[in-house]
Amino acid sequence: MLTAIPTRRTFLQAGAALLASTALPTLARAQAASAGGRLIVAADSEPKNLNPAIVASNGVFFVASKVIEPLAEASFEGKDGLSPRLATAWEGSEDGLSVTFKLRAGVTWHDGKPFTSADVAFSALSVWKPLQNLGRIVFANLETVETPDAATAVFRFSKPTPLQLIRNALPVVSSVIPKHLYEGTDIAANPANVQLVGTGPFRFAEYKPGEYYRLTRNDAYWGKPQPNLDEIVFRVLPDRAGAGAALEAEEIQLAAFSAVPLTDLDRISRVPGIKVITKGYEALTYQLVVEINHRRKELADLKVRQAIAHAIDRKFVVDTIFLGYAAASTGPVPKNAPEFYDADVPTYDFDVAKANALLDEAGYAKDADGKRFSLKLRPAPYFNETRQFGDYLRQALAAVGIDAEIVNADSAAHQKAVYTDHDFDLAVAPPVFRGDPAISTTILVQSGIPAGVGFSNQGGYANAELDAVIAKAAETIDTARRTELYRQFQKLVAADLPLINVAEWGFITVARDSVLNVASNPRWAVSNWADTALQG
Amino acid sequence: MRTMRRLLATPEGAVGLALLACLALVALFAPVLSPGDPLRIAGRALTTPFSDPAFPLGTDRLGRDVLAGLIHGARTSLAVGLAAAAAALAMGLCVGLAAGFAGGLLDEALMRMVDAFQIVPGFLLALAFVSVVGPSVPVVVLAIALGAWADPARLTRAQVLSVRERDYVAAARVAGMHPVEIAVREILPNVLPPVLALSAIIVAAAILTEAALSFLGLGDPNVVTWGSMIAEGRNVLRSSPWLSIFPGIALVLTVVGVYLLGEGLTRALSGRRAAA
Questions:
Q1: Which residues of A touch B (CB under 8 A)?
Q2: Would you give the distance in Å from CA B273 to the centre of its chain?
Q3: Global model pTM greater than 0.90
């Protein structure tokens, strides 16, 4: 276990730290002074559009989730894994054609206007369904939202839509924005997309590009006496190597999303006053996946794909690349989605001899140099770990006689090459599992997706049986039957290998000991932080 | 041969030549010294240096042999450095010769082009070029040459301007030699020495630029380079500094070697001119 050894900070150390933190001296002093206090957090990106109702991504949620709230948030102990936020109760109809939300009373927007069901209806119909990256899929069949009174919203669908899907998607897709600021404007260009106005525990105070985002306490929060903090400052620290040093110097008090590199965790966990927390990302599981271009005749052969799966040492990947902060994958649904996860799928042990035998069987014998064929490998540049796995995969493939040439590119060029131009044979991708396979997982293997749709099946894979299961699950209302269909889905993917799931990982939070209630829910880093507090 | 003897007589030249000769030998015999792919995962990750005889300089984050990386990295660094410098010199010589010898409008046009390239920082140019075309060894060579050819072009032109009015050039002209023949046979050999002295600086700069490009992840990912080794080591700088230190030392030695050789060469050549 990696836990910091708690030692009492001596007066001298604290004094030295204060002197050392020249960058934000006043901020550091404020922490010691008040019980509410100011939390300073490392941020590594500055999204152009900060509106979580339009851009449902972790980079946006990290800042925006404190200001704009969803209907419900993920929870460790709540019913169905949810705790109520702007909705207090939800119920689906028997036929799956409607879902009724009871909304929280007495909630006001940060500009003083009351929050009503009209805001929910507007957000759903004008933003989530037409504009949001994930809402497009979840609310594809949403027809109208009826508002019989100010505290009730009834979602009506043209086709049966499983309540299980809506429920699982709520924390991610249901950020409610104020109708009175957006109605009749160009929603995508509205100034409120940066100067956020929401109902959350914190108000958006200011944004200095390249420097920080500052949020201040919302005194009129419906969850009074929360929030506990007076202020949250997201300091932009684009250099990942800098976050650890900033924590040690007490310039920041918290770095989420593995801003401190994995290789630095062992050392920093031993620094007095700093704790390393691996919880709080259970609903934000990233998956390490090898995407396969089935247009290549070699890769269209199942035996070759099985050989590649056998050539990858998942233990090495977990232990050496992720330093143990990951788990080996068995299929397209991660283990920490127990509602859906099925361990009973075909698995591929690390076995070089078997991989070689399979490749021989497939008819690709080694030539004089010990090579069978060459492939173009594109590792996604988003994480250190995806790049390192690319280096590892090249070596693992060389061991079975496949010559892989790595092609590096920046994010934009990589996405264009893989998802639009199909200029790859193998690619390393880190898709996210978002609580339900229908949100962003089935799209990775489903056929018939037009070129240009990012993070989807662009490898030309088509399997009628798998497509049928995915289509059936999308309209199955009964939770048990729907879950069963997704178990079948996992078996089919693991058996036919449209892509190869290698590992799954969550992120790491590193915080000063003075930050309390960290990781209190499975989406903690992107939740509202109303209960987060600082020790005086 | 006389130049060589003079070069060895200068301490800079001797030391520089020795350093580079060692390096060239290592690069040349890399497949013998460390057989196999240097990027192969050879052992336990992050073995400390001098602890395991199989990996005298330790292993990196994935368990790749650091010594093998250094040996094969010497190949890439020297090859890219020399190729880029050769390309830059060739381009510079051609442009300088043409501009200086032809004069007039062509001279003006070519020199304004040189100005344009000199204004843009060479590294920025290389960075932009590689990120547009995509990283591979030939592209990196071209990208570095693109930022380095302007200086030799300018120097060549200046030399040509002073040489072309000499009597022997006039004699060649009177003898009815073709202008191209005059340029290549009479002028080029006489402008070459100072430009060659400049070449050492270009090689050193090219090696550093290549390392910097690799450090930023814009090198060819399929070959090992010192720059990419330093970049990889940077992520674990606090816990395993040797991963950056060893390739850093190799880079320093190479650049110092090239620079000393250049100094020696300049002194040897100016000595010759003084003696002549």
A1: 241, 244, 261, 263-264, 266-267, 316, 320-321, 381, 384, 388, 390-392, 394-395, 398, 405-410, 413
A2: 26
A3: no
